[in-house]
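Table S7 (text form). Paired inputs.
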Amino acid sequence: MFFARKYLIVVLSASCWIAARAEAETPRPHIEIRGIYGGVPTELLEDGSTLADHGINAVWMGSGSLTTERVALLKSQGARVFAEFNTMHVASYLKDHPDATPIGTDGDACPAPQGWQGICPTHPGYRKSRMDAFRQALADFEIDGIWLDYHHSHASWERAEPDMPDTCFCPRCVDRFARETETKLPDGPPSRIAELLLGQHAETWIQWRCDVFTDWVREFRAILNQTRPGALLGTFHCPWSDTDFDGALRNKLAIDLKAQAEYLDVLSTMPYHARFGHAADPAWISRQTAWLGKHLEIRGESGERLRIWPIVQLADWGESIPVGQVDAVLDHGTRKPATGVMVFHWSGLRKQMDKVSAMTEFYRAIRP
């Protein structure tokens, strides 16, 4: 009986694997984007192959890495070109502008959590510098879209155990909050003010912080419409649901997805399953995507204004990704409501060509 039961389990497991593999090899006409993130994959072109031969039709690279030659090369390959734009993580700005440092609950500069240095979101000089750089990238290069990145508060969340200090309690933020929300705050040390904002006025404070970050997205949208109308505005953002880590998406990171979605075309969640403690559970990717679709009423149907294109982890970061898991990761990354997918990241994958080959096989198989 024991051996019969064990044999049955093996057969069923094999059957499930075969069924999943067959599903993964079925064309998925709802997937319009099969991309890579992290630069031009020149290694794939050295033998005369094209990006299309590898099933790739889109490439993301940092806005600072854009050149006319790189864009032209990718366009000649028939690929769409998207830029990644750093919004709240230009740490070098603090060297000459220390007043842009996020302030913690004790009234002092908040240490960078896990080395992740954010910027005060109400610093006018920093905001202007980012908007100018955003406008310049759109004006200088014929890109098909630009994705906001690091658009959240001073926190390190790209890990299994996030580090999310409460900020920013600088006089500028506190004064602006009091004025814009008509909240009366007493005189007192910064620690007392922070205590009130995180206690008695917590809901108003949280909403105000979210509104500040959303207003950045509104301005980015206006600049894109003026500078390169027709280009897409996307965002790379935390893949959590609204209840994960006690609502930290909104309460700690100041990300209001419904409010930001008004100005966006594409939401690219970052469900790095291995990095975030789900190394043995690639299905976590599609569960998080399904939550986002339900939250924003996105079904993954043709003609929808909002789209979901997850960026999924194939390169090693923290936990390793075995080559045998590539199919499962891409399978869950391309399930509706997703209508596109990209892999993270080329700088790591170029050293793991066995995974690239598996990605190529999957991308080619799901093409319409």
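Next pair, protein 2 of 2.
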Amino acid sequence: MTLGEIADRISRALAEKTFNGSLKFDCGEEGVIVLSENSATTQDQDTDCTIKISQDNLSKLLTGKLNPMTGVMMGKLKVSGDMGVALGLSKLLA
């Protein structure tokens, strides 16, 4: 799944749920996905919170195959910035 496809999928989920704040999934060389104002884009911008994660692990996270807390403990994702925004992501993934 490409980052564009993942961003489209997140946008559809955001249409049904509210996400407060702004969050960036930083996938390094592959690019970024930014969640802001109840939409998702692959255009980079400053956000309240950044999650560094590989594109493969991002797909696993969004499909429930990677538990966020386990991912942090195993070093598969790193969170910086506003942790409250990162915790709000769990409502979106549910």
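Residues 3-16 form the longest helix (14 residues).
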